[in-house]
Structures are given as structure tokens and as C-alpha cells.
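User: Hey, my collaborator sent me this sequence without any context and asked if I could get a structure. I don't really work with proteins. Can you help?
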Amino acid sequence: MMEFEQILRSRGYRLTNQRRVIVRELEGERHLSAEEIYDRVKEEHPELGLSTVYRTLDLLHELGIVRKEDFGEGYSRYELATERMHHHARCRRCGKVIEFNEELMEYLTLQVERETGFVTDSYEITLHGLCRECAAASS
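Assistant: No problem. I've predicted the 3D structure and written it out in C-alpha cell form, which is a compact way to encode the shape of the chain:
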């Protein structure tokens, strides 16, 4: 929380209760949607509206505190950027998201940079297909 507060203050923002509540919610979970965050906190924090959750997540993403992921569901999912860099595999049938860290992906990025001169700021790799359970059920 201290690192988060320092980032906000260094950019001229205050650590409001709403921002604190949203970051705390993301500390324990990954890949939450704005609606899921709102549903989890609305009872204890009725002053926190869904539009505030969206605005706060947009700001936190802009400041590099939160990563915004798109798994092709029609909405974004969020996780703290302090989590280790990882990639995702998403089951198109059940929606399960599997995290993986593969050094080959990092090598591939470096290879593309060498061959094309492209300079990568960041990258995200999401594989789409069937998880083990759904693949077994369909055979």
C-alpha cells in the first residue's frame, strides 16, 4: 500500500478511501472485473458507486498501478501491476483463466525486436482454446 500511495502522491493524486478499497480488493485476487470489485465492496462501502470503480481503475491503469487485461469477454479484467509478469490461457468454453510464465515468450519478443527493430514497451500474450477439463469433456 505504501508503494501505491507514493506513486499517487508523486503524480499529484491523493490516496482516497475509494482508491484504497479498490487496491485492497485487488491485492487478494487477480483478473477481477469492475463489476466484480463493485459487488464485493458495495455492502461495506455504499458510498462507492460503479462509475467510481471504473474511473478509479482507469486512473490506476494510466498510472501503471493496475494492469488491464482483455480476455475477449466484452469487458476488462484487472490485476495489480506489482504481480510478477505472466501470460494467460483462457478457456473459450468455461472462461477459466490459467496463468503461466514462459521464458520462451520473452525470447520470442527479443527475437522480433532484433529482426524488425521494433522497440517493445510491454507485452501480453493470451492463448485461447480449451482447458484440460473442457477438452476432456469434448472428446
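In plain terms: The longest strand covers residues 66-70. You can pass these C-alpha cells on to your collaborator as they are.
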